């Protein structure tokens, strides 16, 4: 097995579909199928059962997938260390980022960072914070940027703290909310529970959810057209949205959504990781002094 085989197994396991995996790897479906059969012949095991819709990995296949993940991590670590030995700030910086923060804040941070360190190549993975923390634990990324309260036993820096807001096209009275349609969107369990706790503190009946969408921006567009109200983190609001918004609180304590930068102690051995952490903390200090 080589690096391409490791990547092939990882992609197949992620997609669970030969056609989709071939598209992601930019190879033909017959070429992928041939390589998969070659691997099965090499190890004398069936790696995955070909169903009508999804691949089902055997226990032997699962073992090889885990092996390939470890080998890709070791290869990446070796490349990182070799570049680190050169003494320059260069190489790959792998960051896992919460989707919302990646959309609203990360582009500016990366633009400014790369202006200072142009020889760094940044690889970004986005997703739910739970997924990002898992990737950091498996050392698939150097740094994680997550939202909410997750237990992380090593290093963490508070990046951002914002209010949670109710938004609507026009001003609405809080007491009328149970009879007004809410537009909800997919979010992580921690934020979802925060909203539920706030609702249960103020109302005895459940909210009237009339629409469920997959993205905050879609949700905001529905609200902008007067189709209901929504509850979103303040990071998602922009001046041009021109929406009525009200900060939510429980017993006069505002609901707060926190964003954390997390990393392992050993990650600081890499000059590129250390440079990014120092860059971000310097930005935070400058922002605090300007307030």
Automatic annotation (TrEMBL):
InterPro entries with a match to the protein in the record: LysR_HTH_N, LysR_subst-bd, WH-like_DNA-bd_sf, WH_DNA-bd_sf
Gene Ontology MF annotations: DNA-binding transcription factor activity; transcription cis-regulatory region binding
Pfam families cross-referenced by the UniProt entry: HTH_1, LysR_substrate
Tagged with keyword Transferase: no
PROSITE patterns the record matches: HTH_LYSR
UniProt keyword terms in alphabetical order: DNA-binding, Transcription, Transcription regulation
Family: Belongs to the LysR transcriptional regulatory family.
Name the record gives this protein: LysR family transcriptional regulator
Source species: Shouchella clausii
Source taxonomy: Bacteria, Bacillati, Bacillota, Bacilli, Bacillales
